[in-house]
Amino acid sequence: MKRLLVWLVVSQTLCAPFIAGAQTTARPEAGERHEFVISNFKTESGVTLPQARIVYGTFGHLNAAKDNAVLLPSHYMANFQGYGWLIGPDRALDTSKLFLIATELFGNGRSSSPSNTPEPYHGPRFPVTTIRDNVEAVHRLLTEELKITHLRAIVGFSMGAQQAFQWAVSYPTFADRIVATSGTAKCYPHGIVRLEGQIAAITSDPTFNNGDYTAPPARGLETFGVVWLGWLYSQEWWRKELWKPTAQPGATFEQYFQMRRSRFIPGADANDLILQMRTWEKHDVGTTSGFNGDVERALKSIKAPFLYMPSETDLYFPIGDARYEAAFIPGVSFVPIPSLWGHTAGAASNPADAKFLNETIGRFLSGK
User: Fold this and answer.
1) Structure confidence by residue, pLDDT tens digits, 303-346
2) Active site includes 122?
3) Is 113 a catalytic residue?
4) Which domain holds residue 345?
5) For residue 103, what is the domain's CATH number?
6) Residue 349 known to be catalytic
7) C-beta separation of 242 from 233 below 8 A
8) For residue 15, pLDDT beyond 50
9) Can you give 23-92 as a three-state secondary structure string?
10) Closest by alpha carbon to 220, among 229, 207, 236, 238?
11) Residue 300: enclosing H or E segment and its boundaries?
12) Contact partners, residue 310, CB within 8 Å, separation at least 6
């Protein structure tokens, strides 16, 4: 029971219930919650939101020179506490020295989202926001709200890695160093096919009603969870039953699977889930202004030292895509995570990966 509670606590810290957290008893730092509101925020889709709200958390203290800030952009459906595995005196990001800003993506149900935006942009009428929309909004948060014009580093996992790549292309001198784990500079066609399958799992439920549902499309959400779970870990992870440390002692595979399928992302709104998947699949640094859709040219423009850490067994962002991209990034440090934990390895989903990530990222950030 103690083992299960440890894993549950850390899973809540990651705030993405589909990721099992690092097995540690250390209490994560809570951070302070803030909101930043932008009036008349024009999205890349052409729709202008009367108010665009960004929820973010801060950890540590900004020094007088304002040169100790690190940005942590959130991953899929996560809140600002999704980087607890990196934060602490014995980890890569020590808040006694650094000021951390952890931002939340549009569509997570707290920042501006389909579920919390009034008409005429409520529910399915909320505009599809891109990774660049999120980066532009956070750039305004940093420069206008916090008066920060330069970052010590940007560190991102998954959709946070997508944002890290976009920052490197859109604002090539804004950060001293950039780290991307389990994420690529573009969502390639195979990733779009996967995401469309997961969207279809939700929308095929008659209760979904084109996004104007009066009750959650429960069957569609459960089907979505099953499809998502099938891609989350490596095939060998399942064969070796590495799910057992996260399960109730003595649980069978059938019991574990039933628990995961029914509690994948508890309480998440269907339109919010879909919005963030659309954001994910539209990501392409090549479509940044000035690059004419050329992802290779965009990657070649990156100036900051870049630590690229794909998971060797990631089915969401395959290592082959990462190797292809790394060839075009000047001076890249390409360090795959040797793990069977699939996509989740990039968020320290087990003790070995937590150690490898913190040591590697810590050395990189210190310039060693």
Assistant:
1) 999 999 999 999 999 999 999 999 999 989 999 999 999 999 99
2) no
3) no
4) 2-365
5) 3.40.50.1820
6) no
7) yes
8) no
9) CCCCCCCCCEEEEEEEEEEECCCCCEEEEEEEEEEEECCCCCCCCCEEEEECCCCCCCCCCCCCECCCCC
10) 207
11) helix 295-300
12) 181, 182, 184, 317, 319, 322, 323, 336, 337, 346
Given a contact cutoff of 8 angstroms between Cβ atoms, the answer to whether 25 and 6 are in contact is yes
- Pairing, β 99-103 against β 48-59: antiparallel
Query: For a pLDDT cut of 70, what percent of the chain falls above it?
Result: 92
Which one is catalytic: 74, 158, 234, 349? 158
Supply 330's token pair: 């000047």
Report the pLDDT averaged over residues 56-71. 97
pTM of the model: 0.93
CB neighbourhood size of 147 (10 A): 9
Token digits of residue 195 = 């995401």
Beginning with the edge strand found earlier in the chain, give each strand of the sheet holding 175-181 in spatial order. Answer: 32-42, 48-59, 99-103, 69-73, 151-157, 175-181, 306-309, 333-334
Q: How many domains does the chain have?
A: 1
Confidence of residue 45 (pLDDT cuts 50, 70, 90): very high
Predicted confidence (pLDDT) per residue in 215-261, tens digit: 999 999 999 999 999 999 999 999 999 999 889 999 999 999 998 98
Q: Which tens digits make up the pLDDT trace of 141-181?
A: 999 999 999 999 999 999 999 999 999 999 999 999 999 99
Interatomic CA distance for residues 131 and 347, integer angstroms = 20
Q: What residue type is assigned to position 119 of the chain?
A: E
Q: Measured between alpha carbons, how far is 158 from 270 in angstroms, rounded to an integer?
A: 20
Which is the catalytic residue, given 74, 112, 182, 343? 343
What is the maximum alpha-carbon separation in the chain?
Answer: 57
**In this predicted model, what pLDDT tens digit does every residue of 77-122 receive, in sequence order?**
999 999 999 999 999 999 999 999 999 999 999 999 999 999 999 9
Annotated catalytic residue: which of 133, 205, 284, 314? 314
The whole-number pLDDT of residue 10 equals 34
Length of the chain equals: 368
Among 267, 260, 276, 191, residue whose Cα is nearest residue 226: 260
Q: Give the type of residue at 70.
A: V
Residues 6+ apart with CB under 8 A from 132: 44, 166, 170, 288
